[in-house]
């Protein structure tokens, strides 16, 4: 068994595509196919099942993937360690985030301290961002909500008020704020069910026994903004993510505390990894400079350090 065979298998298993794996490793697809096939033949096992144009991991392949995830995470950590011995002048930090707004100041601080470290950021929904972290595809993640999980360490970072967006010709547009009861029966455009912004707003409305009328569900902040501007309904968004627009007003709900939160999350087993530690050190610096960044109204407890 050669290291190149395992690397080829790992790349294919991560992406479920021989073509994408070959492109990421910078080799030809026949090379990837040959290496995986030779690994299967050497041990008399089947790692993938071909179903037409799709491939799926066998039970054996799934078990091997668990091992190669740890193997290549350790390999990366070894490279990070050696890089740190020369002052962290090179390396690759992989960050996952549910949106660009929460993570930007962290990246700026880290880049100022370690300008030679290459940083890649993957933006996705909460489910995909957490999966990438658990699968060792990212080193740290910035998430709005984290369920308790012994594998994870979650550090509260920011809280942001949720505001209601309305078009400028709406009856609310002349107000400075609204009350929760004003949302009764109002047409509402919402994010997908897993959205933390939607979850926080829905909970606040239930607590006030208020029932807006959901007329549309859109999985994009930008698309919701456009729908609000066209008068389809009202929208809700984190205040930090609201982009000023002459067609739209953003109003706070004066009698309800509705917040979203940002947590920096990493795998407990990797808390001593060099780049993770360096990133967390910069995070601590940001929190020390701006102690109000931590939530004044803490969300339900997540994993503890």
Entry summary:
With 305 residues, the protein is α/β, with parallel strands linked by helices. 40% of the residues lie in helices and 23% in strands. A hairpin with a 2-residue loop joins strand 1 (48-51) and strand 2.
Query: Average pLDDT, to the nearest integer?
Result: 87
Unreliable stretches, pLDDT < 50, 5 or more residues? 291-305
What's the main sheet like?
Answer: 10 strands, mixed
Find the structural class using helix and strand composition. alpha/beta
Proportion of strand residues: 15-25%
Order of helices and strands: HHHEEHEHEHEEEEHEHEEEH
How many DSSP helices?
Answer: 9
Quickly name the level 1 CATH class of the largest domain. Alpha Beta
Please name the fourth-level CATH homologous superfamily of the largest domain: Periplasmic binding protein-like II
Rg of Cα set: 23 Å
Helix content range? 40-55%
The total count of strands amounts to 12
Cα distance spanning the termini? 39 Å
- So what's the overall shape? globular
Corresponding CATH architecture of the largest domain? 3-Layer(aba) Sandwich
Count of spatially separate domains: 3
Would you write up a description of this structure?
The chain has three domains: 3-68, Arc Repressor Mutant, subunit A; 75-157 and 261-293, D-Maltodextrin-Binding Protein, domain 2 (3-Layer(aba) Sandwich), CATH 3.40.190; 159-260, D-Maltodextrin-Binding Protein, domain 2 (3-Layer(aba) Sandwich), CATH 3.40.190. Helix content is 40%, strand content 23%. It is built from nine helices and twelve strands. The strands form two sheets. Strands 3, 4, 5, 6, 7, 8, 9, 10, 11 and 12 form a ten-stranded mixed beta sheet that branches. A two-stranded antiparallel ribbon has the order 1-2. The radius of gyration is 23 Å and the shape is globular.
């Amino acid at each position: 068994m050669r290291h190149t065979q395992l690397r080829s298998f790992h790349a294919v298993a991560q992406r479920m595509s021989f073509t994408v794996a070959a492109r990421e490793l910078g080799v030809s697809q026949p090379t990837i196919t040959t290496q995986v096939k030779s690994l299967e033949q050497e041990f008399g096992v089947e790692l993938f099942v071909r179903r037409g144009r799709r491939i799926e991991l066998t039970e054996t392949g799934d078990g091997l993937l668990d091992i190669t995830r740890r193997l290549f995470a350790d390999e990366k950590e070894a490279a990070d360690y050696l890089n740190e011995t020369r002052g962290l002048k090179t390396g690759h930090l992989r960050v996952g985030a549910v949106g660009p707004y929460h993570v930007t100041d962290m990246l700026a601080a880290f880049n100022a301290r370690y300008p030679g470290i290459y940083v890649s950021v993957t933006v996705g929904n909460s489910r995909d961002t957490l999966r990438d972290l658990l699968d060792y595809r990212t080193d740290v993640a910035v998430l709005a909500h984290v369920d308790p999980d012994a594998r994870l360490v979650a550090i509260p970072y920011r809280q942001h008020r949720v505001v209601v967006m309305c078009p400028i010709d709406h009856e609310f547009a002349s107000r400075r704020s609204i009350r929760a009861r004003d949302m009764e029966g109002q047409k509402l455009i919402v994010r997908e069910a897993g959205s933390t912004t939607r979850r926080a707003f829905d909970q606040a409305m239930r607590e006030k026994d208020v029932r807006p009328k959901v007329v549309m569900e859109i999985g994009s902040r930008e698309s919701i903004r456009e729908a609000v501007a066209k008068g389809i309904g009202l929208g809700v968004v984190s205040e930090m993510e609201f982009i000023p627009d002459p067609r739209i007003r953003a109003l706070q709900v004066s009698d309800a505390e509705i917040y979203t939160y940002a947590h920096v999350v990493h795998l407990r087993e990797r808390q001593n990894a060099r780049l993770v530690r360096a990133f967390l050190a910069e995070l601590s610096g940001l929190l020390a400079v701006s102690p109000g960044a931590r939530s004044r109204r803490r969300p339900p407890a997540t994993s503890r350090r």
